[in-house]
């Protein structure tokens, strides 16, 4: 579920939070870091379960409409194409999904069903829904394309849903795009049965990724002063107090990878942190950071301080 770049972002944010809170409790902050990463799984399950609850809510609406004393012909004989959507049914019947939701205690939509009603209204007023409901017959291919498009164009960008998620857990702000991209990819690749049917992805690709979280966090924090000395002399035209705090953290993390993570290629480290700087720091930060890192790499190579081996990890 998590890629290396997002792991780096989570570590960077935790180090920044430590600085802002003037905390030196490494164990406590590391525990919070892993907790915030674990919560990404909950975000994923909440978003997927919203699709299941949308179908359940529409089933309830149809049943109530049919029982009305003066039900219209359309209410008595509704188009059930949406509730018969094979992808939604597959999600409803997915054992891995049900088990994960139960294990993590995900019941957000039971306690906040008003958001499901808001989403259902947005769905039913969308052009995607109107076009889909022009017929009554279901094919798996059409059902899959409809749900994938609906998620990307209607559900994921819904402002009310975003506000709810942001209020529920502030640490999710940067996780939402990652999770939504993953779900979108899964929905477009989902198959009706067999080994390619819907599954709940692992949080970490492997144990190396989980170790990377801990090692990058600890090595950057524990070697803070040593890492700072590496680039202070390389910024003669910059007062150290003028360097954005995020930039100093990014530089320390990158230098830490240069010197203490032999399996990660230099180019990978530079590219990853330049992209992070573009997104999280000032407009000119990536240029500044690139210049510093490029000079450092030249120095390290000339003094044989770089010791890299292996294929590298992304």
UniProtKB/TrEMBL annotation:
Belongs to the NusB family. It comes from the Bacteria. GO terms for biological process: DNA-templated transcription termination; transcription antitermination. This is Antitermination protein NusB. The keyword Transcription applies. One of its GO terms (molecular function) is RNA binding. Residues 206-298 form the NusB/RsmB/TIM44 domain.
């Amino acid at each position: 579920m998590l890629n290396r770049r997002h792991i780096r972002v989570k570590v960077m944010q935790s180090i920044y939070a430590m600085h802002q809170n003037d905390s030196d409790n490494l164990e406590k902050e590391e525990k919070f870091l892993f907790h915030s990463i674990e919560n990404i799984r909950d975000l994923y399950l909440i978003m997927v379960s919203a699709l299941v609850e949308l179908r359940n809510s529409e089933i309830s609406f149809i049943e109530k409409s049919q029982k009305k004393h003066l039900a219209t012909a359309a209410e008595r004989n509704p188009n059930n194409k949406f509730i018969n959507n094979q992808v939604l049914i597959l999600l409803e019947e997915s054992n891995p999904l049900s088990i994960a939701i139960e294990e993590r205690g995900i019941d957000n939509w039971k306690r906040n069903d008003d958001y499901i009603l808001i989403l259902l209204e947005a769905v039913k007023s969308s052009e995607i829904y109107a076009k889909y409901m022009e017929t009554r017959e279901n094919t798996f291919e059409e059902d899959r394309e409809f749900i994938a498009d609906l998620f990307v164009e209607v559900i994921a960008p819904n402002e009310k849903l975003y506000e709810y998620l942001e209020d529920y857990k502030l640490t999710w702000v940067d996780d939402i795009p990652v999770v939504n991209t993953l779900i979108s990819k899964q929905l477009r690749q989902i198959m009706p049965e067999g080994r390619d049917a819907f599954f709940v992805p692992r949080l970490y690709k492997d144990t190396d990724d989980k170790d990377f979280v801990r090692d990058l966090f600890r090595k950057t924090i524990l070697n803070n002063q040593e890492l700072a000395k590496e680039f202070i002399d390389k910024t003669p035209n910059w007062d150290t107090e003028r360097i954005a705090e995020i930039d100093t953290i990014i530089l320390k993390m990158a230098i830490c990878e240069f010197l203490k993570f032999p399996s990660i290629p230099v180019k990978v480290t530079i590219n990853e942190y330049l992209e992070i700087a573009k997104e999280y720091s000032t407009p000119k930060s990536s240029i500044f950071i690139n210049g510093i890192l490029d000079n450092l790499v030249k120095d390290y190579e000339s003094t044989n301080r770089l010791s890299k081996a292996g294929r590298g990890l992304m």
